[in-house]
Amino acid sequence: MVTRAESAALTRRALLDAAAELLDLGGPEAVTLREVGARAGMTRGAPYRHFADKDSLLTAVATEGWDRISDQVRALRTDPALSASERLCGALHALIGVGRGQPHLYQLLFRRRGDRPGQRGEGLDRVRRLCAPADDTAAAVRATERFQDEFLAVVAALVGAQNARHYGALLLTSAHGIAGMELSGHLATDVWRTSADELVDTVVRMVANVGETA
């Protein structure tokens, strides 16, 4: 027999899956609590018992997005078959891969604090601000901090702990710029004679060279 807590968890899971699907299909504007409930096959009031509003729901979606990326980075970090450079390349490709496969989620992950879900922010002045969802819920903060910790551990293996934050910020802003250029169609190979993957490899090689001389 399913307990009340288990039933609530299943409902929340279905609502989050429905919200993620709607986000992928039409961006934040397509995600309304009514549409999420309908897509999940539930009553109109069901979403309100789990999420205060649309912002709360989208923050939960973003939190899960960061958790998935963190899982990928951790798997790379602990893979003994990979070199430090390969782990770092993989971590950056994991981020850019979200931009390619789920562009609306990617924009949600990198929105500036205080922006509404349909807005995108720029100004990537600090790694934590870069990675933080808009609402400072405990789960969101834990998710972004976990990603930061995993990513910085990968960077530190290449350049040392004392340089990890500086080069970590450089690498993240580079990856974000590459993903944005690719997403907007401005990174055309016939114009630049290069690709996003080649640019990531180049940036990692440059940072690796710094690590060797540090």
UniProtKB/TrEMBL annotation:
Start and end residues of each HTH tetR-type domain: 9-69
Keyword list, A-Z: DNA-binding, Transcription, Transcription regulation
DNA-binding region(s) from the entry: 32-51
Domain of life: Bacteria
Extent of the signal sequence: none
PROSITE patterns: HTH_TETR_2
InterPro entries: Homeodomain-like_sf, HTH-type_TetR-like_transc_reg, HTH_TetR, MT1864/Rv1816-like_C, Tet_transcr_reg_TetR-rel_C_sf
Record's keyword annotation contains DNA-binding: yes
Pfam families: TetR_C_33, TetR_N
Stored PANTHER family: HTH-TYPE TRANSCRIPTIONAL REGULATOR BETI, HTH-TYPE TRANSCRIPTIONAL REGULATOR RUTR
Protein name: AcrR family transcriptional regulator
